[in-house]
Design brief:
heterotrimer, A mainly alpha, B alpha+beta, C alpha+beta, A: mainly alpha, 11 helices, 5% strand, elongated, B: alpha+beta, Translation Initiation Factor IF3, 4-stranded mixed beta sheet, 5 strands, 32% helix, disordered N terminus
Chain lengths: 285, 114, 163
Amino acid sequence: MPPETRPGAGTEYSNPEVPHEVNVSERTPLRDFLRLSIGLGLSVVAVSATVFFTARLWAPLIPFRYEMAVADAVVEKIGKESPSSPCEAQTRRALQTLADGLAAKMALPGEMTIRVHVGSDKTPNAFAMLGGNIVINRGLLEHVHSENALAMVMAHEIGHIKHRDPIVSLGGGIAVALLFSAAFGGSDGGTLAGWALGLTQMSFSRSQEERADKEALAALQAYYGHTSGADEFFAYIVEKYPELARLPAFASTHPSPPSRLQTIRASFPPVPRPLKPLPGCSKGK
Amino acid sequence: MATNTSGITLSNIEHFPGYVITRHLGLVQGSTVRAKHVGRDIMASLKNIVGGELKGYTELLNESRQEALNRMQAQARAVGANAVINVRFSTANIAAGAAEILAYGTAVVIQREV
Amino acid sequence: MADDLIAIAFIIFLAAVGYIFGSIGQRRHYRSITQREAQYRDILVFNEKLPPAEFAGQDFALVCGSVVMGGDYFRQILAALKMIFGGRLSSFEAMLDRGRREAILRMKAEARRKGARAIFNVRLETSTLSSAERNNKGGLPCMELIAYGTAWRAPDGAEKRAS
């Protein structure tokens, strides 16, 4: 094809300058960066706060087996400490039997099981923890003198577990921890366990305590046929820590021990019934 | 270039004004997988801190592309072609530090129109 | 905890270095691109397959230009933030724009070395090189930008056509 006979002769081929700027939004990325960082920060705070403050509403809906899975990591540690002697193992077994007996009278939801642990702490106290775990401090066993008094404390803690009080108290913290470990990785369960462990000394609300007391009295009534002796531990607390009683009830989220004592004594039978001796292997015998 | 008998002319066009294709000899291809070596990798990751062109990688991939073209031309020469037309490139990330460069086209015998 | 803080501080340091030197480098690169684009303005590029009839019978050759562009930590963090909220990633836009124009310039440079006047059937390709699938564990974005086409010698005289 000779060059003289160009088809479309006169067609001009050229490359005028194109505005390259259209492909790049020329704005300083630093401003974008700051804007986005602040936005992200606020979102994280807002989401965490929402999760934290609404946890009370939806925490009881978390299936109990998830709660147990989280708690297991913590309980491993506590459980391994306790059976150091045959006597202690015997005590633990006796406490577990008592807890099972009480639980049978308390209409717990199907998958819920109660596991009792003996804590080495000398403070007379007991805790309800995540996953149906109850810790009875050795101190408590030394300060109560009847099975009935011990059963009252234990049934009170089972009452908390029945109403999912531990996870409601921890719900906010656990949910935020879950959120963060999901968002930033490193969710090996250990972090969660750490959170749970740090928060085992959880505090329950006044209405939660009152509900647990009521559950406990009903359980004692069903288990022993009466509630005699249920007041021993509370009477001891009132005597030991009189300053708690002087606080006006509205100033504390907990019902004051004297008022709890009154409630318990109001349920007593007219004639005191004989009490059972403390189960297990106590050092007094 | 097009009339050079020793070399193989390359193009990514299929029809050439002023030329006739007398024989179509089928698909030819050349490919190579190259890994960036540690030294380059370290230099590149240092350069990566400030962004911009990673010269080490550019050179590496250019060498690889030349190698792929050479291999493709070797195939073309073997089938008796003097050009490879409609050449296409493709780069694929095989593994963390390795890339395949592929060049392929149609081997032909091309002549100037007379 | 202290380790985490050190790691975070290090990332922030890298991001700051990336931002400062990246910006300087980008400005310098754009200056060089603008200058060379003026220099190679006489080599015309089109992505139509066929050259006009005046190139008929002229020498032709495949020409190719490529560049590998890497992102920096600042861009990476900015991108991670943007991927939450969406929107234009202007820093990556600039990175790819620079790379593509650089690749075209290198293709034009090769065309000039081969004595060509225009490049037809220009194709642009972008491929991801870095391990994007190693989900951002130290994997900064790394792209290869390629421009290639068929360069044609100018129809400038009968003496060439006689060869």
